[in-house]
Amino acid sequence: MGSSDNHETPDEGFNNTFHHHSSPSSSSSRDGWKNRIFFPTLLAGVAGAGTGLISKHRKSLGLATVSASYAANFAIITGCYCGAREFVAATRKTGPEDLLSSAIAGFGSGALLGRFYGGQFGAIRYSVIFAVVGTTADYSILKLKDVWRDYSKTIYQDIENLKKNENWLRLPEWFPIKVLDEEQLAAKRAQEEKFIEQRARIRSLREEDS
């Protein structure tokens, strides 16, 4: 009786195993989708709206209309490119650092949008532009990530070295507020007491003269 209650059917065991193994991968893929598609598209929309604020057409067409148009176009272009890049990377089974996937995605998304907006000539022109700009942007982002990673490591190492040297709480020399140690505090107290004695002696001399 007790063993039958604890027995799992094959379907239940398969479902439990599937959910157990699929949860981390699904969450990581969801985070990757947000970081590589949603956030760039959102930032592109914000940049497009900002571009519309300084556009020369804002007076004739209206500021809200021009900003919304720029924001929509920037978001559509960036979303198509990022989506195509993720599709190519998943098809080729490469990571986000593969610039060939960026070039292929830029060429494909540029050809599609260029064909839609400018016909055959637009498809050729936009495919080249998207491939060059997209690959350059991805390459620049990768380099900036490397620079930031090295800079973060350097800062962390400096902090660790300061902690080892027991100087991590010491203020810099140029800081206007100084933290005194015990010897400096004792010297300051002695100096203050000496100054008080001198004032008392001067006061007594004045009283004698008067």
UniProtKB/TrEMBL annotation:
Question: What membrane topology does this protein have?
Answer: Multi-pass membrane protein
Q: Which UniProt key words apply to this protein?
A: Membrane, Transmembrane, Transmembrane helix
**Any one Gene Ontology biological process term?**
protein insertion into mitochondrial inner membrane
Annotated Gene Ontology MF terms?
mitochondrion targeting sequence binding; protein transmembrane transporter activity
- Name a GO CC annotation attached to this entry: TIM22 mitochondrial import inner membrane insertion complex
Family annotation (InterPro entries): TIM22
- Give positions of region: Disordered: 1-31
Entry's localization field: Membrane
> What is the predominant subcellular site recorded for this chain?
membrane
Q: Which residues lie in Basic and acidic residues bias regions?
A: 1-10
**What is the protein name stated in its UniProt record?**
Mitochondrial inner membrane translocase subunit Tim17/Tim22/Tim23/peroxisomal protein PMP24
Taxonomic classification: Eukaryota, Viridiplantae, Streptophyta, Embryophyta, Tracheophyta
